[in-house]
Amino acid sequence: MTSSPQEEIKNAAQAISDMHVAAVSAEHARAAGHAAANLCSGSGHRLLYVSAELQQLITQAIEIGYATALQDVRDGDFDGNIQEWRPALFEE
Question: pTM for this structure?
Fold first, then answer.
């Protein structure tokens, strides 16, 4: 049995919500929310014309990515790159 587009959207929305709960810790929530707000405000007027539910999904998806990246940085996944990206941090 195939699912309807509406069911697929509902399932995708639930998956995003579940990922958000798992990925966006209280520690990173404020920074992730700020990043999402900045990106959404930079999109211009387009987001004004989508439903509040879709706006929330877009925001949650951005927050998931941002919080995951923050955790990767905290875990040291990019330690080898930081000196290349920010050499001034290592100058005396």
Answer: 0.83
